[in-house]
Amino acid sequence: MALSGLEIYKLLPKTNCKDCGFPTCLAFAMKLAQKQVELAACPHVSEAAQAALSDAAAPPIRLITLSSNGNKLEVGNETVLYRHEKTFFHQPGIFVRVSDDLPLDEIKARTAEVDGYVVDYVGMPLSYDGLAIAYASGNPEQFGDAVKAVCDTTHKLLILIADDPAALKAGLAAADGRTPLLCAANAENWRRVALAAKNAKAPLVVRVDDSDPSTSSEQRLDGLAKLTEDIAKFGVDDLVLDPGVRGFNESLATITHIRRLALKENFRALGYPVITFPGEGATSQLDEVTLAGQQIAKYAGFVVLDHFTEASAYALLVLRANIYTDPQKPIQVEPGVYPINNPGPDSPLMVTTNFSITYFSVANEVESSGLPGWLLVADAEGMSVLTAWAAGKFDAERIAKAVKESGASGKISHKQVILPGHVAVLMGELEEELPGWEIKVGPREAVDLPAFLKM
Q1: Per-residue pLDDT tens over the stretch 292-303
Q2: Same domain for 121 and 237?
Q3: How high is the pLDDT of residue 153?
Q4: Are residues 159 and 174 in the same domain?
Q5: Count of domains observed in the chain
Q6: Which residues span the domain enclosing 344?
């Protein structure tokens, strides 16, 4: 049973040392009761208290880890329903499904296509996480060959989709050295499948297979909870939930219900990540991508797609990246001087902030123009130009400091710096901070930079 904040407080040192980051032990206890912090944040808690607080300290959604040749994906351990409350920590894994009844050459070709797709988004390389191999042949040996074909082509992560324990064993043998996700255990096969997962020390999907349309969502979740409790007692703790819903409305309602039960009610039997199969609930590839986007936002842990295109991959990866960034910590680039198009000492020196979108907007416009230049990125704590100026984080003093400490003057033969047009008001102050320098005011928008530099 979960402990209240006051019950937790009684077990803490009660020294109010603030080492946990909170002003009092009571404040820390309240956050611990709400699953918003970890017990490890308190360095002074006794071993006896740690044992007593193990349930309160456990994350409401279990952390599941997949690994493969140095690649690792962690899913779960979330503590909030809404991103703005704190942040989402572990982004969902996105996989593409291939069937073992395809020719091995085609399996390798599809795998290579997924493996080779990487896109740069504001300095972050984005790609899919892995492949899901589906058992459609009815032949465990053929399933093992399909898994081996995938493993020979990529080091990405694996999901093995098979209800037959013999097929899963063949797949595990072919995936030697990797920790895949096994999918799936149901009411009929769970003992044999759970044994395979236990022996392999691999996480396991628990699925509700109930095609009766009269079965309510509550009945499905009750059945799912009963299965997870039985499998956990059997000795498999790393579980993933497949509630069996596939459509837009059912998926959103059921997955959100699971998340609420885990976070708000501390319902341990459903305190696991969820896996979704948007292709099974869609009538077209466009619907599949749309449903996958919904499930990435609310609240899938693993998303298995049936189709791969570069256009859909870019849309889903950028969506995931935006949702799983800390809203209190803007994406930043490292302050410094960046060369664009092989600049020389006579090339212009432009200045901007270290907000990644601002940086890449400026850099991409200059790069696409073919004109050489130096881009000085000043530390503005990850804010855009206007926001940083309004907050006092991008002023003449900071810009001058960036010019002096970045080594920019050693890269150019002139003493000219171009300010963003939105902060033209800083021109006079910057002339005082940088005596002997000529301060120019550039355009307000990055798109107008090429024309300005040609003048």
Answers
A1: 999 999 999 999
A2: yes
A3: 96
A4: yes
A5: 3
A6: 336-454
